[in-house]
């Protein structure tokens, strides 16, 4: 499928993203509710006899992993005929059973405002792996610190990214890719922000 932004000026990106979000079968409200409930569940999780946020304070990568898994699983459990979790390397993180175009990739980050991908995101699709273009759910969260033992979700964004949007690090050894300011601003729309009216 061609990018919905193909041959469109940056000034047109926001309206295209808004139309893509309006077309998606999952409402902003459902996405927000699912993410926030998943986060609450993580902070109530017990591992053996230890509680997250009381006894153990996982690093951001672990919290991101839990969030990634619970958001997808929650949607599968709530809408089993329409959504399921990733099962194969070709699957997006959240698979739409009715029309794969609506499948979603999840990205999480403890960065205040940015999200990142690994270097492969800037390379398109290879070796029968998942398509890197499509809908994205981007979630930013606070990390545990000595002064913050009750971290929160700070931002949830939803939109569409193409693999060309991901900029790999220049060094061949670099493993990270990022998005330009224009892409983050106009192709990912904020649907939830902590301490703000939504």
How are the SSEs ordered, and which strands pair?
Layout: H1 10-23, H2 28-43, E1 46-47, E2 50-51, H3 60-78, E3 83-85, E4 94-96, E5 104-109, E6 116-118, E7 134-141, E8 153-161, E9 166-168, E10 176-179, H4 181-186, E11 188-193
Helix pairs in contact: 2-3
Task: Please give a structural write-up.
About 30% of the residues lie in helices and about 25% in strands. It is α+β, with helices and mostly antiparallel strands and about 200 residues long. The chain has a single domain, classed as ECO RV Endonuclease, Chain A, CATH 3.40.600. It has a 4-stranded mixed β-sheet. It has a 3-stranded antiparallel β-sheet with strand order 6-10-9. It has a two-stranded antiparallel ribbon with strand order 1-2. Helix 2 crosses helix 3 (about 60-80). The longest helix has 19 residues, at about 60-80.
Report the strand count. 11
Mean pLDDT rating: 89
State the end-to-end CA separation. Answer: 32 Å
Secondary-structure element string: HHEEHEEEEEEEEHE
> Would you give the CATH topology?
ECO RV Endonuclease, Chain A
Whole-number tally of structural domains: 1
Radius of gyration: 17 Å
Features:
four-stranded mixed sheet, 4 helices, alpha+beta, 28% helix, 11 strands, three-stranded antiparallel sheet, 198 residues, ECO RV Endonuclease, Chain A, single chain
